[in-house]
Amino acid sequence: MRGQAAYMRGFTRGALGGVAATTAMSALMVAGRRAGLMSGQPPKHVARAILPGHPRRPKPGEGVLGAVAHYGFGVSAGALFGLLIRSRRAPVSLGVAYALVIWVVSYQGWVPRVTVLPEISKDRPGRPAVMAAGHVVYGAVLAAAMNLFAKRRRGALSLDQRDDFRVAQRDAFSLDRGR
Question: Model-level pTM?
């Protein structure tokens, strides 16, 4: 019974962390698009490719479907990470490594096969740089959020613990402002 509870806590912490991490990553991706480093959001390209019609032509609802799919993928990936970590503390470095593996497997594997986006190695420099940075942010925020939720469960957070999470959030969001 204890093992099942640890898995459920990890799953829940990971899913909630996935929401926070996907939000931070999305902010960085929007900043990358505004800076001219990406022509559009990759989740929107995925949605465009799976909707009926030409894969390169804009379609009604692709933005909403892309956002929903991105959050669904981010929450699912967070929940899987939580299952792997269970109730242990999630090292930020492990979260970052996990996210970078997702990026490489996705953007060197299934994404180019499903969409019009090229593999990382064949893409123009801007998008891979933004996507790598976005996945680093995702992994760091995922681990930090999971640790915050674990500490919250054990009792009230100390001021130092709150500051740790705020610093992680600030660092994640400052990347999109060039600081």
Answer: 0.81
